[in-house]
Amino acid sequence: MASSSSIEFLPNAGVDVRQLFILLHGVGGSPDDMEPLAKAVRAAFPSAAVLVPQGFEPFDGGGEGRQWFSVRGVTEENRPERVAQALPPLEAYVREAQARFGLLQSDTALAGFSQGAIMALELVQAHDGMAGRVIAFSGRYAQMPKTAPQFTTLHLLHGAADPIMSVEHIQAAQARLTELHGDSTIDIASQLGHALHPALIERAILRLQTCVPLRSWEAALGLNQTPPDGTPVH
Q: How do the residues of the chain divide into helix, strand and coil, expressed in percent and rounded to 5?
């Protein structure tokens, strides 16, 4: 698969950037793979900057694709360490993008497919509130969460027939997040496998447009918190 460099979709001239979306492709893929999602986000949020970086490492499985971390010999035991080592460059990229557009962490959404979803989920585990939303397609956690982000809403979307990342893992993770008072939604498409399918993209856009974060309800009840860095959460 040919790998392009990072792709950017910016608002039309004269339109202020009000949201930031960062989309992360799967292992062995390229930013081009995320173009259908990027176009859907751009149509739904015309004042958003949509950035699609390429994986920071060449894919070591052959071809011209990219990866966020190697899956050669990956196991349940060594996956968390590999992801942890891959997070700092992604953290820096997100912070630089936020500074570039002068946007708050709460104005940022991370969306990932497959390995990109792992990276997005684990980044907000490591840095709660770095993004206001995470949209994880066909993904999983590197390890079952021990705590739930309190300043990030998680939208989990998966195919029930996924042969690569079992839907049972993300279902178990979402149940754990609920136990931990996390803010998450889950949508499972019964006939879909491991793909960034238009039906899941459509559902993700609906979630982004209509889902009121749990922290917003708690704020209305006087139960709101302030993130560790003091950044207000909208």
A: 35, 20, 45
23, 194, 216, 231 from 222: Cα distances, Å: 33, 41, 10, 18
Say whether 181 is catalytic.
no
Residue of 32, 70, 194, 216 marked catalytic: 194
Is residue 33 among the annotated active site residues?
no
Of 114, 155, 158, 197, the active-site residue reads 114
Rg (CA), the chain: 17
Tell me the backbone φ, ψ of residue 205, rounded to 5 degrees: -60, -40
In Å, the largest CA–CA distance within the chain is 54
* Alpha-carbon dihedral angle through residues 17, 45, 32, 22, given to the nearest 10 degrees: 60
Q: How many other C-beta atoms can be found within 10 angstroms of the C-beta atom of residue 38?
A: 21
Three-state DSSP class for residue 191: coil
Residue 187 appears among annotated catalytic residues = no
Residues 97-153: pLDDT tens digits? Answer: 999 999 999 999 999 999 999 999 999 999 999 999 999 999 999 999 999 999 999
DSSP string, 141-181: -SS--SS--SS-EEEEEEETT-SSS-HHHHHHHHHHHHHTT
Query: Is 133:215 a contact under the CB 8 Å cutoff?
Result: no
